[in-house]
UniProtKB/TrEMBL annotation:
Keywords assigned: GTP-binding, Hydrolase, Metal-binding, Nucleotide-binding, One-carbon metabolism, Zinc
Limits of the GTP cyclohydrolase I domain: 8-185
Family annotation (CDD domains): GTP_cyclohydro1
Enzyme class: hydrolase
UniProt keyword Metal-binding, yes or no: yes
Record family assignment: Belongs to the GTP cyclohydrolase I family.
EC number: 3.5.4.16
Matching HAMAP family: FolE
Gene designation per UniProt: folE
Protein source organism: Tumebacillus lacus
Catalytic activity, as annotated: GTP + H2O = 7,8-dihydroneopterin 3'-triphosphate + formate + H(+)
Residues annotated for Zn(2+) binding in this entry: C77, H80, C149
Protein name as catalogued: GTP cyclohydrolase 1
Subunit structure: Homopolymer.
Length: 187
């Protein structure tokens, strides 16, 4: 992704002026540069295909559930451009022993979260990425997050947690399997 740091810096200066601040005040002199650098990092997932994170696929003949849980992530609400953050839990059942490196599941979450987002989209995109690339028997994703747009503005309810889920394949059809994997992911 090619970030236009100068444009971000100009915009931040304008925002500071618009809220009645002096962007030339000592404490704010480097703020536009810091914000531009931060935005380049926070939005580093833009233009990336999360499927590219699944470049390492192995034949291990393991056809039972694989779960990586408590994957921390940070993202930016596309409605307010304020952070939301939490944990993702990702599970899949390999088909014909096709597995991927465990860190790849965390990398998918990171790539998807590092762009202006909605929690619901993160959840479904992670699930769809695994389906498209690994063709597993089933996929389950749970994302739990706190949204600063609900904490610091609007309804002002710190500590409120939002939970979203996406299931594919076997987990859509078999409610007992879905209940079991959700219990393992949240337990």
């Amino acid at each position: 992704m090619n970030v236009d740091h100068n444009k971000i810096e100009e915009a931040v200066r304008m925002i500071l002026e618009a809220v009645g601040e002096d962007p030339d005040r000592e404490g704010l002199l480097d703020t536009p540069k810091r914000v531009a650098k931060m935005y380049a990092e926070v939005f580093s997932g833009l233009g990336k295909n999360p499927e590219e994170e699944l470049s390492a696929i192995f034949n291990e003949m393991h056809e039972e559930v694989v779960i990586v849980k408590d994957i921390p992530f940070f993202s930016m609400c596309e409605h307010h451009l304020v952070p939301f953050y939490g944990k993702a839990h990702v599970a899949y059942i390999p088909t014909n022993g096709r597995v991927t490196g465990l860190s790849k599941l965390a990398r998918i979450v990171e790539t998807v979260a590092r762009q202006p987002q909605l929690q619901e989209r993160i959840t479904s995109t992670v699930a769809d990425t695994l389906v498209n690339k690994l063709e597993p028997k089933g996929v389950a994703v749970i994302v739990e997050a706190e949204h600063m747009c609900m904490t610091m503005r609007g309804v002002k309810k710190p500590g409120a947690s939002t939970i979203t889920t996406s299931v594919r394949g076997l987990y859509q059809e078999d409610t007992a399997a879905r209940a079991e994997v959700f219990a393992l992911m949240r337990g």
